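We store chain and fold; example below:
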Amino acid sequence: MTEQLISESITVDAPPAVVFAILADPRQHSRIDGSGSVGSVIGGPATITAKGQTFTVRMKLFGVPYLIRNRVVEFEADRRIAWRHFTANRWRYELAPTADGGTTVTETFDMSRANAPTDFFVRRAKFPERNREGIRATLQRLKRAAEADAVESAGQA
């Protein structure tokens, strides 16, 4: 498998600001995680506002719990956010407004910056395939969460 970018997209019936508010709040990542690996946040800002910020999350992989510190490496409010941990792999969300007031969200697992040992391990452990499944499930959960938040926000207006 030579694919270095694993991406999926979904259209959400909520404006980019609503979707981005979920993505920029690390405490909500477990709410939308479709991989089953993201737990609670134990450190970091309540809302990410800039590139360079960090947040630490309880995770679980193959049933083994661990902590991971992520650093925001791309940030454009309501448009793009990406983070990475000790490897060079990135988890990126790109948002594009739709003509009807919704948002097209693309989530990407980006392995293009990985060194050879990391790339070997990631591929050997079947992370590209696992991540594609997780991305699909995450996008469905993000869609439900953002649409619910949009309805709630409209009701408060």
Remarks:
- The chain is about 30% helix and 35% strand.
